[in-house]
Amino acid sequence: MLTAIGLDDRHEAAYRALVAVGAADVADLARRLTLGVQDTERALQGLERQGLAARSSARPGRWVAAPPAVALGALLTRQRHELERAELAAALLAREYRAAAAEPAVHDLVEVVTGASAVAQRFLQLQLGAAEEVCALVTGAPVAVTAPENEAEEQAAGRGVRYRVVVERAVLDLPQALGGLTEALGRGERVRMADRVPTKLVVADRSLAMVPLTSHSAEPAALVVHASGLLELLAGLFESVWREALPLRLNTDGAAEEVPDGPDGTDLEVLSLLLAGLTDASVAKHLDLGLRTVQRRVKRLMELAGVTTRLQLGWHAYERGWVTRGRPD
């Protein structure tokens, strides 16, 4: 818990033990920590350098803990100052970067990354740097990073970054693919499936994209695309594939299930009543459905349409002809 202020597990354990007993000699503390005497003494010396422990002047050979409120408070204050300086340096660098990129040269809009290690590092950085959304097209076998190795995805999703992913059907046959998709769905990521995906692609915050390069060599390579018309084209490609793909669900056995590609009769009734101006509660009462059932059906309709608001759903309903269909027999 104290790693954030520079204490490793051994130093933290030694400090906690010293706080618990108030004062102890090296041998006693070593027994409590199940460490060797030399390792315990080195840990105490490390605590001494950070002001967390001191040799007892009243009882030679014994060590005492510094009061946590004072000693840890000082370390926290120092850490805050260091973070503030780092944030200031990052802000200044970002300002310099924006100034230099205000009129970017053509060759600055695209980076060529070569080698499995470099491609993997850039792929992970792209996700860790995302603030709002990561969109991805996933095909076939991985180029540089497998699903279990993609720790950045879990970290970014944990920070609240939204993920929209379209996977090619063939991906489901890869080892550990279903396990990875189950975890992604469990984190709240939106996953769709298509028979075929045109290319691997990752777009972060619509400001940066990464796409593999077709190469005759065995060495993986990729293009990293910055804000430009090319980036807009790649983002548009993702949205096009996303709209045509079907939402993916996994049943209790871990098998993939596709959501039907259109609304059923009850969905159409719900939709028509909502477009007529009824509230969710009124629709539920009119159709003799539960309120939560109506809301679940609306959410599913939004997923089918690939939209995030009910206003967009109404527009897509007219575009797709949903509101003009009759209820199936």
TrEMBL record:
Per the record, the domain of life is Bacteria
List keywords of the entry alphabetically. Coiled coil
Extract the GO molecular function terms from the UniProt entry: DNA binding
Q: Which InterPro entries match?
A: Sig_transdc_resp-reg_C-effctor, TrmB-like, Tscrpt_reg_LuxR_C, Tscrpt_reg_TrmB_N, WH-like_DNA-bd_sf, WH_DNA-bd_sf
Q: Which residues form the HTH luxR-type domain?
A: 260-317
Can you cite a GO biological process for this protein? Answer: regulation of DNA-templated transcription
Q: Which residues form a coiled coil?
A: 76-103
Name by which UniProt lists this protein: LuxR family transcriptional regulator
Organismal lineage: Bacteria, Bacillati, Actinomycetota, Actinomycetes, Kitasatosporales
